[in-house]
């Protein structure tokens, strides 16, 4: 199990988690841009940092050439959540509270 991973993965389906994160992270704005992040700007509907987007896309063998692509962000985020890496989003704690 990954450090900081949350043991609630069996309580929800991944697509529900993705939709919650989209609403929380960007309000559904595919061009959302947050320049106030301490570790670099975040982009798109799931507010990926460019480095994370590229690293995870490569890791999972998924397209990762358009940081504003909703499909690419959702595909990468789906794999990450399935691998219990949801904690990497700031809104993930809110999602877990919503479940409980």
Structure, explained:
The chain has one domain: Lysozyme (Orthogonal Bundle). Helix content is 45%, strand content 6%. The protein has helices at 14-26, 50-60, 70-82, 92-99; strands at residues 33-34, 42-43, 48-49. Helix 1 packs across helix 3 and helix 2 (50-60) crosses helix 3. The radius of gyration is 13 Å and the shape is globular.
| CATH topology heading | Lysozyme
Can you count the beta strands?
Answer: 3
Unreliable runs: 1-9
Strand content: 5-15%
Q: Note the main sheet.
A: 3 strands, antiparallel
User: Main sheet: which strands, in order across?
Assistant: 1-2-3
| Gross morphology | globular
Sequence of secondary-structure elements: HEEEHHH
Which key features would you list for this structure?
single chain; 100 residues; mainly alpha; Lysozyme; three-stranded antiparallel beta sheet; 45% helix; globular; disordered N terminus
List the helices and strands and how they pair.
Blueprint: H1 14-26, E1 33-34, E2 42-43, E3 48-49, H2 50-60, H3 70-82, H4 92-99
Antiparallel strand pairs: 1-2, 2-3
Helix pairs in contact: 1-3, 2-3
How would you briefly describe this protein structure?
The protein is mainly α and about 100 residues long.
